[in-house]
Amino acid sequence: MSQPRTLGDEPVAPAVTVVEVGPRDGFQGERRFIPTARKIELIEALIDTGLPVVEVTAFVSPKAVPQLADAAEVVAGIRNRDRAELLALVPNLEGAERAIAAGVDSIGLVVSASESHNAKNLNRTVDRSLAGFADVVAAARAAGVDVKGGIATSFGCPFEGDVPAARVVHIARRYAELGVTRIGLADTTGMAQPRHVRAVVRAVRAALPAAELGLHLHDTRGIGLANAVIGLEEGVRRLDASVAGLGGCPFAPGATGNVCTEDLIFLLDGLDLATGVDLDRLIGVARRVEELVGRALPGQVMKAGTRAARHPLEAVPTAAG
Amino acid sequence: MSQPRTLGDEPVAPAVTVVEVGPRDGFQGERRFIPTARKIELIEALIDTGLPVVEVTAFVSPKAVPQLADAAEVVAGIRNRDRAELLALVPNLEGAERAIAAGVDSIGLVVSASESHNAKNLNRTVDRSLAGFADVVAAARAAGVDVKGGIATSFGCPFEGDVPAARVVHIARRYAELGVTRIGLADTTGMAQPRHVRAVVRAVRAALPAAELGLHLHDTRGIGLANAVIGLEEGVRRLDASVAGLGGCPFAPGATGNVCTEDLIFLLDGLDLATGVDLDRLIGVARRVEELVGRALPGQVMKAGTRAARHPLEAVPTAAG
């Protein structure tokens, strides 16, 4: 958000920070265990595309999410780690301590704007979640590890429906009181429409003008990247996305989860917003992710290629349109 | 474009005209012949959702597109036809005469902004295409049938790459000289990025301020609806879309074709732009289209339901995010 825009033809610094969340938000939903070495390879390949931040894993209960039981080994194994910020999701102090010991650069906290989602997801009240964050932040501070505050169901809750913007603002303020001012507004189940993105971003910004706001958008209802445009118009300059569109929605079989990183990069390029990411290289990585999980994933640019893809005249389209 | 915006809570008239193109642009790519009665049922169901314009078929060579060989029977069979504008694509005078005889309300012409795409798609030069349109327009005028002018590859050509905006303006002017001022800019193979949408819409509007511009966007690279936001910001108020996201891209196996109608309606609703379409009803139709073609289609809202969909607390998400 506070980073400079592209000046002339020479990108001085990324205008938008794209946070790759596939290794965490994507993999956590995969039933078949992905070998640790494959995870590390993927993360290294993602870093090699120029992605500035990668959410590499979560330090959660291995019983709850067996796929991420190798969190510490994954972090320890990343060889090109100096070229990106390694972020890990943590639910509590124990997770934070494990993440810090493993050597992450930053940790992400999460609490839901809706009580019922927080109860379901984290098994406690919102207030209890927030109260527990003080020790986490202190531990991170002491270790020189950055903290990001995520707010799930910021734009709607699959159990409760509408979530008042004031509720999101309340949680953002609590984060700010703890000194956490990088705040991620998450559309956890893809309920956001442009009006919600606008209203919530504006409300949080009005309450906390100095906060650095990010958006974690899902494409569950097909408008994730349209919502990204609205967020960018509202000044957001940090966007989460998942390589190949890896991830899903627990409530909607067949529906898409996170917005797709390659498609987002293609969009940002078309808005003249530099990201520092090599799109061709990222497409190659996305195709390998499809092989890794053994099924087609929703990313589109990886199927069609970039705009630069040329077709021989022999490839005959069926008819006009 | 010239229609009034929603005033207060009461939609006075649709702010955006959504043109349903599935029965033409979607079906033309289906290999298995869809029985005429099924096509008619679908079109009637689409009209019943409140869609104001339906592109019902194309009057093209049955040899080139066997799927649409029943064009006249389809048009003749639609019983609720008074409630929507029935549009048909025609490539030439012969097609126009068949369409007019069948009783359509409007015909759509198409020519490509790129020579190589026009040669491949229509087997003639752009100039020969345009020259042939005078007789078509005269025949339509005489019959009281409206004419729309489509410009394929307006934002890029799969053979040539970039297409100069001046080239699109040139063709739009030629249409205007024939009295055709409802002009559709088509992203035929999904090459448009926001910068192209902005540049081409602005260039055509500057040249022809009175023209009513529409956009025919494809989601081949995942940013079709993000491009729609840009088009709407540029004042476009007519958008093509295909129910369930029916349709594909001949150049990219597995890639998406037209933007999906339900997802577009969900987006427009979120932008407070009224369409007059009953989204719940349209979702029902989209699900039947999947059954009709016998495979999963890319539409997302039809999988996840609208924002109003509530889930029981028992449906447990896997983890935070």
How would you describe this structure to a colleague?
Two copies of one chain form a homodimer. With 321 residues, chain A is of the alpha/beta class. Chain A is 40% helix and 13% strand. Chain A has twelve helices and eight strands. In chain A, strands 1-2-3-4-5-6-7-8 form an eight-stranded parallel barrel, surrounded by eight helices. Chains A and B meet through helix 5, helix 8, helix 9, helix 10 and helix 12 of A and helix 5, helix 8, helix 9, helix 10 and helix 12 of B.
CATH fold name of chain A, please?
TIM Barrel
**Rg of chain A, please?**
19 Å
Number of domains of chain A: 1
CATH class of chain A: Alpha Beta
Give, in order, the helices and strands of chain A. EHHEHEHEHHEHEHEHEHHH
Mean pLDDT of chain A: 92
How widely separated are the two ends of chain A?
39 Å
Distinct helical segment count of chain A? 12
Q: What is the total tally of β strands of chain A?
A: 8
CATH architecture identity of chain A: Alpha-Beta Barrel
The oligomeric state of the chains shown is homodimer
Question: In order across it, which strands form the biggest sheet of chain A?
Answer: 1-2-3-4-5-6-7-8
Topology:
2 copies of one chain form a homodimer.
Chain A: E1 17-20, H1 22-26, H2 36-48, E2 53-58, H3 71-77, E3 85-89, H4 93-102, E4 106-112, H5 115-122, H6 126-143, E5 146-152, H7 165-177, E6 182-186, H8 194-207, E7 212-216, H9 224-233, E8 238-241, H10 261-270, H11 279-293, H12 301-304
Parallel strand pairs in A: 1-2, 1-8, 2-3, 3-4, 4-5, 5-6, 6-7, 7-8
Summarize it.
Chain A is an alpha/beta fold. Chain A contains 12 helices and 8 strands. Chain A is globular and about 65 Å long.
